[in-house]
């Protein structure tokens, strides 16, 4: 039985409008810098965040002139909203400017709690700035590259090669038995690096020349030895750690197939009923368990709220009996 996604993945929400033409309009960029808002991101992907109320936490931005008298060459234009341009730059907390270092958080810490505007700003900023950190030299000739198009292009000073921000596609798939009711089952697995008790759905990177559906079938076969059918797209979410996008699918498999966890990749795998998953999700309502690193009291640790894996599990568990 297929299921719908009940709400957008937390890091796929955004309100700031991307506009390629604005990236080319240097006159507009310079003239609007005085009213621009700038998100400062440190080398660990942290930005200042203020806890919010009903709408969520807010990523704090600075006025353009507070960051620099003129538009910095290294700044990245994230987009525009209500006639206000939003930019991102690398930086650190400044005590002289009144910054509070304790407010600086990364997406793993605050992503699930951010409002839609802040989530979109922070995900885009972290992703593009990560790319810039590793794109300073040409992959063809080794010469330095220069920033163009408001941070969305680098051009080699030697051979003229153009490079745009990279995104590495990865599939993530919720495998279930196609059943209905509380006894329907879902396949979960644990990587060796995770603490005992933490399980999630299966995922893997798309290989060159491979379709997304073929990747789903291959990864599940390789990781747990199970053949799947009825592969269907669900949703996607950026995962800028450092530059991935998670493309979510569901697929159906027969639980009678023997599980064969891939050595070195999967420590454990097992089938869980919908009712059992529902109980685990109730336990996970305590946000302090979101990024637990200890096995705790033996309860199943589900993926954190920031992940698309959690969105998929929440949605599958919500299917009415």
From TrEMBL:
Record family assignment: Belongs to the Nudix hydrolase family. NudC subfamily.
Primary enzyme class: hydrolase
Gene that produces this protein: nudC
Annotated InterPro entries: NAD-cap_RNA_hydrolase_NudC (IPR050241), NADH_PPase-like_N (IPR015375), NudC-like_C (IPR049734), NUDIX_hydrolase-like_dom_sf (IPR015797), NUDIX_hydrolase_CS (IPR020084), NUDIX_hydrolase_dom (IPR000086), Znr_NADH_PPase (IPR015376)
Boundaries of every Nudix hydrolase domain copy: 165-294
Catalysed reaction, written as an equation: a 5'-end NAD(+)-phospho-ribonucleoside in mRNA + H2O = a 5'-end phospho-adenosine-phospho-ribonucleoside in mRNA + beta-nicotinamide D-ribonucleotide + 2 H(+)
Species in which this protein is naturally found: Pseudonocardia eucalypti
EC identifiers of the protein: 3.6.1.22
Xref: Pfam families: NUDIX, NUDIX-like, Zn_ribbon_NUD
Gene3D superfamilies registered for this protein in UniProt: 3.90.79.20, Nucleoside Triphosphate Pyrophosphohydrolase (3.90.79.10)
Names of the cofactor(s): Zn(2+); Mg(2+)
Protein name (record): NAD(+) diphosphatase
UniProt superkingdom: Bacteria
UniProt keyword list: Hydrolase, Magnesium, Metal-binding, NAD
PANTHER family: NAD-CAPPED RNA HYDROLASE NUDT12, NUDIX HYDROLASE, NUDC SUBFAMILY
